Amino acid sequence: MGFFDRVKSTFLHWIYPRRCAFCSAVISPKETICPDCVKKLAWVQAPICKTCGRGLPYCKCRKRYQFCRCVAPFYYEGRAKSAVLRLKFYGRTEAAAVLGAQMYDAVVREYGGNPADVVCCVPAGKSTLKKRGYNHAELLGQQVAALLEKPFAADALSKVLDCPPQHSMGARDRWSNVLGAYGVENAQAVTGKAVLLVDDIMTTGATLNECAKVLKEAGAREVFFVVCTVTRARTLVKAIKMSYNAKSPVGLVTKGIYSSQVGTAKPAGVKPMAQIGKGNHTEPLA
Ligand SMILES: [Zn+2]
Ligand SMILES: [Zn+2]
After folding, report:
1. Which of 150, 183, 184, 190 can pair with 160 through a Cys bridge, CB separation 3.0 to 4.6 Å?
2. 60 C-alpha to center of ligand 2: Å?
3. At residue 137, does pLDDT exceed 50?
4. Locate the Phosphoribosyltransferase domain: which residues (predicted)?
C-alpha cells in the first residue's frame, strides 16, 4: 500500500471506524474481530463429529442424515448467537461479511480444502422474504462462495410450502414441519455436482436434511453443509459455563485455537455488504 493509500485508509478509519461484528467495539483496520470477542466467542473446537460438526462431547447425531457432513465455526451461544439474530431479524446485513469469512475458514479447515462444485443456500419462504426483504442465508452463501471462488446458485432451491418458521417449533415437530417444504428450482445448477449448502444455524438438522434430500433427488452427487452456528445440549452448556467460571474467564478455549482460527480469516477477500433491508422481528437478542 502506497503512502497516499495509507493516509486515505487512516482518514477513512477516523471518520468511519471499523467495528467488531459481534460487539460493535471499534477495531483496527487489520482486525476482523475484537480481542475480547476472540476470547469469548463459543468456537467449535476439535475433535469434532464428522457428521454434525459439533465438538464430539456435544454431538447429538441420532439418525442418518441425507447430507455427508456439516461444519460450523461457532456454537449458537452468546455473541455468535446475537450476531446471527441481528443478521436474521434486525437487518444488520453487514455482519454477513465477518460471519461468512469464519464459515469459509471452517470449510477450508474441516473439509481440508474446497469440497464443492457449487454453493447454494437454504431458501426463505415468500412471507419471510416479504417481511424482511432479504434472505440472510443467501447473504452468507454469497460470502462463502466468493471466498471459495465457486459459483453461487441462489436459485437452486426454493421453499414451496410456507410452513411456520423452525424456531417457532419444538424439536419433535421440526421434522414433520419441513417435510415437502423445499423443492429444486434450478436442477441444472446441481445435477452431478458436489453441493455446499449454506445456512445460519443447525439445531435438529431437519431443515438441512430435507434440503439435502431434494438436492439428491435432483441428481446432486454429494451435499455438504456449512452453517454459522450449531446448537449443543443445554445440560452440556451449563457444564461448560461452570467450567468457564472454575478455570478462567476464557474457559475451555485455548489461546492457540483462537489465534489459528482468526489468523486464517481472509478479511481482504470479504466483499462489503450493503444494508439491504430492515428486519422487523421482535425476538429479543441473547
Ligand atoms: Zn467484539
Ligand atoms: Zn454428530
Report:
1. 183
2. 5
3. yes
4. 162-238
CB 137 within 8 A of CB 200: yes
Query: Which domains occur in the chain, in start order?
Result: 42-267 (3.40.50.2020)
Task: Tell how far the Cα of 57 is from the centroid of ligand 2, in angstroms.
Answer: 9
Between 253 and 222, the higher pLDDT residue: 222
Phi and psi (nearest 5°) for 254? Answer: -95, 155
**In the Cβ-directed half-sphere of 127, how many Cα atoms lie within 13 Å?**
7
Would the pTM count as exceeding 0.85? no
Residues lying with their CB under 5 A of ligand 2, a single-atom ion: 49, 51-52, 59, 61
The neighbourhood of ligand 1, an ion, using CB within 5 A, equals 20, 22-23, 25, 34, 37
Reduced to 3 states, what is the DSSP secondary structure of residue 153? coil
d(CA 234, CA 77): 11
For residues 194 and 224, the answer to whether their CB atoms sit within 8 Å is yes
